Amino acid sequence: MAKANGNQMSDLRRKAFEALKIKENRRVILCLDGGGMRGILTIQLLKKLEEIAGIPCYELFDMVAGTSTGGIIAGLITTGHNAIQIEKMYEDLVTQVFDKRLLGNRFINPPAFTKENYRSLLKDIIKDVTLVQACADREIDLMITSRDMSAAEETFFSCFKQPDGTYYGTYKDVLLRAVMEATMSAPTYFYPLERFVDGGTTTYNNPSLAAYMEAVSYSRPMRSAGNPDYALDAITLFSFGTGIARDFIKPDEPTKPHGIDIEFWLNWLMTSTGQDASAMQIDIFRSPMISRVIDFRRFQLSLDPKSIQLLPNTNTLDKHKYRSEWLHDLTEDILGNIDMADITKFDLMKTIGEQMAAYIVQQGNNFTEDLATNGRDLLVTTFGDIVRIQKQLSAAGWLDSYKA
Q1: Using 50, 70 and 90 to split pLDDT, how confident is the model at 276?
Q2: Rounded mean pLDDT of the chain?
Q3: Model pTM?
Q4: How many angstroms separate the CA atoms of 235 and 28, rounded?
Q5: Over 102-147, what HEC string results?
Q6: Which of 11, 243, 287, 361 has its CA 20 to 30 A from that of 276?
Q7: DSSP, res 304
Q8: In the chain, what is the greatest distance between 2 CA atoms, to the nearest angstrom?
């Protein structure tokens, strides 16, 4: 399906734009966060989005960007798979990618898992198609991130269509499945792909800002063809999270963590740095300096009882695994331990994703606007203890007596 806007837009795509309240002269970008097996939550949102739009993501979006598990989903979209198909493929990929390596351990003998099954499955699905071949086939632009340890920088594997029908991108001729392996090679979980590790190890677990910059920087003017390029003021950007992991760290735990110190700090660094960088990006998009020009729509939630209570309740959980069949009965000890590699909670993340999609629709949103109020995510909670902090940090006696 041609992606042309204006008078050349197909009837189905025009109806999709109307259903999602997207202006016809807009270019539409989809950005997908990393998060390991929690990407199944994202897929539930994409299923509902396609249901509302009436067309698959590869026909709706002009560009798809992803990091890690989001990069896997982005690659599957680019190769012409709808959300229902991706869900089935994703279940196969994720349940087999976390294949324990003999004697492997994240902290003693890393990495914990081997990518052999993942690489084999990906080859069966993607074949040896290059980025440019996949993009040209579906008339879609693509960006997938990965961290280059040798160059000490993030690599954006991008491919953009040009006015003359050719595609631009430094790495447009590399294998898509190679990029889809590079972006998910998380340290301690998997071996690097030579120099490349997971794109979410630094500041790009949420690829939204990078995708926006790539689109407006490396595409070319096409207004004369009646097909607006990625102009700063003509973009609608959908950003989907995978759930924010809440560690529920008590105030005194950093000085005396439970278990092995290195495990505590490594887990904290692996989750917190990416989440902080993502939050900063979202704040930029929602700030006055950019919100006036971009139609930005973020969909994220935090994995804590307070947020879960806001979702429609359901009694479809495995009572033996979660101590209750009701979603609203989930406790901190369960929600605070949903590791990206914990496939035993794959079913739980799928359920949360389904109920999150239901929540969005019940709010009358239908993915038509940013899921935020007063600049903050509706389904993301914070736990700042202002009174305690004010009291402690104002008391010289407390400060002088605290462990140095």
Answers
A1: confident
A2: 90
A3: 0.92
A4: 6
A5: CCCECCCECCCEECHHHHHHHHHHHCCCEHHHHHHHHCCEEEEEEE
A6: 361
A7: S
A8: 72
